[in-house]
Write a structure and sequence with these properties.
six-stranded mixed barrel, globular
Length: 147
C-alpha cells in the first residue's frame, strides 16, 4: 500500500528519551511504531502491534503498527522521530540543515520480520555497536571501523 509518512515527536517517546532508555525495549515499543488510520490497517489485515515493513526511496525499516490517535487520515502514517524514522527520510536538507521529516512517499507491507532494538538497528545500518554479547547495556561499545 502506498502511503505518505509524517514524523514528529510523541509524548511517550520523549519520556523514554529523557529517562535515558533509548537502548531498551521500552523505547523501541514507543518509537518504532507506525500509527495508521484504522481503515488502512483493515485493508492490510493488520491488528495493533502487528509488524510492517515500510520502504521509501532512502531505505526500509520494520516497525510495529498501531491505530492512530488522530484518525481519520487514510493514506497517511505517523512515525515518531528517531532512529527508525531516520532510516526512511531523505537526507536532503535544502540549505536549512534539517532533513525533510514530513510528506515522505513510501510503501508498507505486512511482515513477520523482527523490529530491531536501537543497537541492532545501528549495527545493521551503520555497523556501529558490538553485538557479540546477548545483553543490551545502557552504554554499548562503539566499534570503530577502520578505513
Amino acid at each position: 500500500m502506498k502511503v505518505m509518512v509524517n514524523t514528529g515527536t510523541s509524548v511517550i517517546q520523549a519520556f523514554y528519551e529523557k529517562k535515558g532508555s533509548t537502548l531498551k525495549d521500552e523505547y523501541r515499543q514507543s518509537a518504532a511504531v507506525a500509527f495508521m488510520d484504522l481503515k488502512d490497517m483493515q485493508k492490510l489485515s493488520l491488528k495493533s502491534r502487528d509488524k510492517i515493513k515500510i520502504k521509501s526511496e532512502w531505505g526500509e525499516v520494520v516497525l510495529y503498527v498501531d491505530i492512530s490517535y488522530d484518525a481519520p487520515h487514510e493514506g497517511m502514517v505517523f512515525i515518531p522521530r528517531g532512529p527508525w524514522a531516520n532510516i526512511i527520510i531523505s537526507p536532503e536538507t535544502y540549505c536549512c540543515n534539517v532533513p525533510t521529516y514530513k510528506g515522505i512517499p513510501a510503501e508498507i507491507f505486512k511482515t513477520d520480520e523482527d523490529v530491531l532494538l536501537v543497537s541492532q538497528l545501528m549495527n545493521k545500518v551503520y555497523n556501529k555497536y558490538n553485538l557479540d554479547d546477548d545483553k543490551l547495556t545502557d552504554k554499548p561499545v562503539y566499534k570503530k571501523r577502520m578505513i
